[in-house]
Amino acid sequence: MPSFDYLANRLAQWSSQHRLRTLVPRQPQGVEFVDAAGRRLVNFGSNDYLGLATSGLPIASLPRESGSTASALVCGWTPLHHQLAETIAELESTESAVLFPSGYAACSGTVATLAEAGDLILSDALNHASLIDGCRLSRAECVVYPHRDHEFVASVLKQRRHEFTRVWIVTDGVFSMDGDVAPLVELCDVADPFDASLIVDEAHGTGVLGEMGSGLCEALGVKDRVAIRIGTLSKAIGCQGGFVVAPKVVTDYLVNRCRSLIFSTALAPSTVAASITAFESLNSEPERRHRVQSLAQHVREQLSISTSCAIENSVPIVPLIIGEDADAMAAAETLAEAGFFVPAIRPPTVPPGTARLRLSLSASHSDAMVESLLRAIKKSGILTVG
Ligand code: PMP
Predict the structure, then answer these.
(1) pLDDT for 282
(2) Is residue 344, in this structure, part of any structural domain at all?
(3) Is residue 288 pLDDT above 80, yes or no?
(4) Is residue 56 part of a domain?
(5) DSSP per position, 15-66
(6) Half-sphere exposure of 221 (CA within 13 A, CB side)
C-alpha cells in the first residue's frame, strides 16, 4: 500500500484550524432533522426554498424505473425527460432547454464547451465553483473581475475586446454564500456594444425570484438579453439535476459536444417526474415563493441587514458574517444548542477572515420557528463577534 501520510498530515492541519469537514448523518423530518447527537433541529441550512423537497409533493405517477440506464444520448432520454425540458423552456420563455445530471455538470460543462481557445471569459470573483471549474476546463483566457464590478468589466472590454474571437461574461445570478445579486442590467448594457454574451447561473434564483418564479433574469427584466441561463433542479425545485435554457442552436451544440452531458448517465425517471410536479407547483402555488420572499425580507429587517435593493432583500440566503473560523463554529454550536441548524461556512468556500453562518429560509418554516431563531441569534450576541 502506498503511504498517504501526507494526506493525513493535511487533514490534521485542517482539523487544528477548525476547517476539517466530515460527513455527518442527519435524519430528515420535514423542515427539521435529528442530528447525530439525537438533537431535533429546525433546518435553516438547506436550499429547499419552497419546501418542495420535504413537504411531500404529491407526484401523480411515479415511474417504476429507479435509473435511466445510460447517457441521454444512448437510451437514457425518455418522454418524461422531454416533457420536463419542454416545461422548463416554457417557463423560461426560451426556444429550448436541455437537462444535465446536476447543476454542477450544467455550469462546468456549458462554460467549458462554449468558451474556446481565442475567446475571453470574464468571471465574477465570487462565482460558484462549478462556473470556476468550467472556466478552468475551457481553453479560453479567463479574467476574474472584482465582485459585481461591471465598470471593471467595461474597462477590460474597451482595452482588450479586439484580441478575442468571442467574449463570455460568466456570473452567478444570486451569489450562494452572500445572498446578493449580480448587476445583470448593467452587465447587459456593458456587453451589448462589444458583442459579448452573458452566461448566468440561476441556481438560487429559479423558483424563488420573478413574477413567474423563473429567476433573477426575470425579476430584473433581462430574460431576453441573457441568451444562456443555467439552473438546477436541486434547490427550490427540491429534486436533483441541472438544466440549460438557450436558443436551440446552443442546446443542440451542447448535446453534441458537452462532455458533462454526453459522458454521464441521464437523470433518473423518478427524479424527472418529481421535477415536473415541482415546476407545475411554481404555477399553481405562487404563495410558496411569496412566503419565502417575505420571510427573507422580515429576517433581514430584524437583523438590520436589509439593502437598498428590493430584489436582494427577497433572497432567502442571509449571511451572518462572523470572521474567524473558530468563532463561526462556536456560533453554529450555540444555535444548535438552542434547537437550530445554521451551518458555519469556512474557507476555502469563502475567503479567509469571512467565515459566516449561512442562514437559508424556506416556505416551510413557520412564523414561530423564524421568530425563535431570531430571538436566539439576538440573545447569543453572534452578530457582534465579527
Ligand atoms: N451553482 C450554484 C450557485 C450553486 O450554489 C450550486 C450548488 N451548491 C450549483 C451551481 C450546483 O448545483 P447542483 O447542486 O445541482 O450540482
Answers:
(1) 95
(2) yes
(3) yes
(4) no
(5) HHTT--------EEETTEEE-TTS-EEEE-S---TTSTTTTTPPPS---S-S
(6) 3
Closest ligand 1 atom to 242 CA: 15
What is the percentage of the chain residues whose pLDDT exceeds 70? Answer: 99
Q: Is the CB of 128 under 6 A from ligand 1?
A: yes
pLDDT score of 384: 66
CA distance readout (Å), 242 to 210, 272, 303, 334, 346: 19, 11, 33, 35, 26
Does ligand 1 have an atom closer than 6 angstroms to the CB of 107?
yes
Q: How far is the CA of 97 from the centre of ligand 1 (A)?
A: 18
Please indicate, yes or no, whether residues 208 and 263 belong to a single structural domain of this protein: yes
Distance CA(223)–CA(279), nearest Å, equals 18
Same domain, 250 and 262: yes
pLDDT of 375 over the 60 cut:
yes
- CA-closest residue to ligand 1 atom 15: 103
**Section 299-309 average pLDDT:** 94
What is the identity of the amino acid at 282? L
Looking at 284, 310, 337, the residue that finishes a domain is: 284
Residue 143: φ, ψ to 5°: -115, 125
Domain that holds residue 326: 17-46+286-384
pTM value is: 0.96
Q: Are 280 and 295 found together in one domain? A: no
162 and 230 within one domain:
yes
102 pocket-lining for ligand 1 (C-beta < 6 Å): yes
Strand 340-341 relative to strand 40-43, pairing = parallel
Ligand 1 centroid – CA 129 distance (Å): 8
* Residues 163 and 297 occupy one common structural domain: no
- Write out the three cell numbers for 315: 433572497
Asked if 235 and 48 count as a contact pair (C-beta separation under 8 A), the reply is yes
Q: How far is the CA of 103 from the centre of ligand 1 (A)?
A: 5
Q: CB 297: neighbour CB atoms within 10 A?
A: 16
Distance 253 CA to ligand 1 centre (A): 22
